[in-house]
Amino acid sequence: MAVVFPAWTPSAPLQPLSFDWSSAAAVELAVLRLDLIDPLISGNKWFKLAHHLLSAAAVGAEGLISLGGAHSNHLHALAAAGRRFNFATVGLLRGEPQDTPTIADLQACGMQLHWLGYGGYRTRHQPGFWEQWHERYPDFYPVPEGGGGLPGAQGCAALLTQARQQLASLGWADYDGWWLAAGTGTTLAGLLLAEAGEHPVYGALAVPANHGVQQQVQAILHAAGRPDSGYQLLDASRAGFAKADAELIDFMRASEAASGLPLEPVYSAKALMALRRQVEAGYFARGSRLLFVHTGGLQGRQAALSRYQQACSAQPAGYTDS
Ligand SMILES: Cc1ncc(COP(=O)(O)O)c(C=O)c1O
Q: Are residues 33 and 140 in the same domain?
C-alpha cells in the first residue's frame, strides 16, 4: 500500500531547561525538542522537507534528488523520507567517495549516490548545473541543498504553533524570543514568517559570517513579501563550520550531564554555548523567557566526536588549542 507524506507535522515536546548560568541571570529557558519527533526524519528536517515532499507528491515525482556532504543531516533525513514515503532518492555529494556512518545509512535507505568532487560541487549554483541531472533523472523532484528556500521556511512556521500550544504547560503566558542554530537560516526564516514581528528570533550562526546566511534569510523574506526584520544573527561558529575544540566539547558534555538534553557539536552545542555567552554578558534582561530550539542532528553526533578525537591525536605534542 502506498504511504503518502502526511500534511500534518509530528509534535515536538516543549520542556523546561535550566543551567546554573541561566538561573544566575534569572533567564528562563524552554527547549522545543525537534530531536524527538521521529527516529529518522528528525530535528528541523521534517519541517524543512514537508512542503518539498508535498510538492513532489503533487507533481507525481518518482523520486527526490538533492545535495549535501558526507555527514549531511539533510541527505540523511531525505533518504529516510524517500524510503518511508515511496520516493526513490538520489544524493549528489561533496568531495571524493568516503565511508561515514551517514553514507552507510544513505546506502541502506537505497539512495543512489554520485560523488561530485569538491570542484564539481562548487558548480552547483551555476546555470545549467541541474540540466544534466534532470536529463538523467527526469521524473525526480529537486530539493534545494539543506531543504532550504521559501518552501523549507514555510514548513518551519509550524514550530510557532507547536510551541504556543504548550506554553501553558510551563506556566508561561508569553515569551521574549527564540534562540536557535542557523546554517542556511531557513528554519529561522520560517519562525520569522510565523511570528510576523511579534517576538524576536536570534540565530546562532553555526557557519562563519561570510557564508551568506543573512542574504539567504533576506531572500526568503523577500520571496514571501515580508520585511527584512525581527531577527539577529550572532556568531557561534567558533573555529569554523563543523570544527570542534576542547572548550566546546567540555561545555557540551557538562550541559548534557546537567540537563539530560542530548547535544551534538555542529549545531546545538554551539548554539547553546553562544546563548550562555550572551546571557552571561547581560544581553537578556532578568526575567526574560526564551525558547531554545533543539534542531536535531544527533545522527552525526558520534562521527563528529570521532573527528574531534582524531584531530586531537594528530596534533603535535605541546600543541595548545588557544
Ligand atoms: C541539526 C541541524 N541544526 C540546524 C541546522 C540549521 O538549519 P538551517 O539551515 O535551517 O539554518 C541544520 C542544517 O540544516 C541542522 O542539520
A: no
- Minimum CA distance residue for ligand 1 atom 14: 146
Q: Is residue 159 part of a domain?
A: yes
Give the residue from 147, 171, 189 where a domain finishes.
Answer: 147
Please check whether residues 118 and 165 belong to one and the same domain: no
Q: What is the pLDDT of residue 9?
A: 83
User: Where in the sequence is the domain holding 112, given as residue range(s)?
Assistant: 44-147
Atom of ligand 1 nearest to the CA of 189: 10
- Report helix, strand or coil for 194: helix
Taking the whole predicted model, whether its pTM rises above 0.90 is answered as yes
Of 124, 147, 170, the residue at which a domain comes to its end is 147
| CB-based contact 213:219 (threshold 8 Å) | no
Q: Please check whether residues 64 and 123 belong to one and the same domain.
A: yes
pLDDT digits (tens, 9 = 90+) for 226-248: 999 999 999 999 989 999 999 99
For the CA of 152, the nearest atom of ligand 1: 10
Q: Is the CB of 182 under 6 A from ligand 1?
A: yes
Classify residue 230 as left (phi > 0), alpha (psi -120 to 50) or beta.
left
What was the pLDDT predicted at 1? 44
| Contact status, residue 171 vs residue 140, Cβ threshold 8 Å | no
Question: For a pocket test of ligand 1, which of 156, 178, 187 has the largest count of ligand atoms closer than 8 A to its C-beta?
Answer: 187
Q: Is the CB of 297 under 6 A from ligand 1?
A: yes
Return the ∠ at Cα 48 (arms to 218 and 208), rounded to 5°. Answer: 50
Whether residue 44 has its Cβ less than 6 Å from ligand 1 = yes
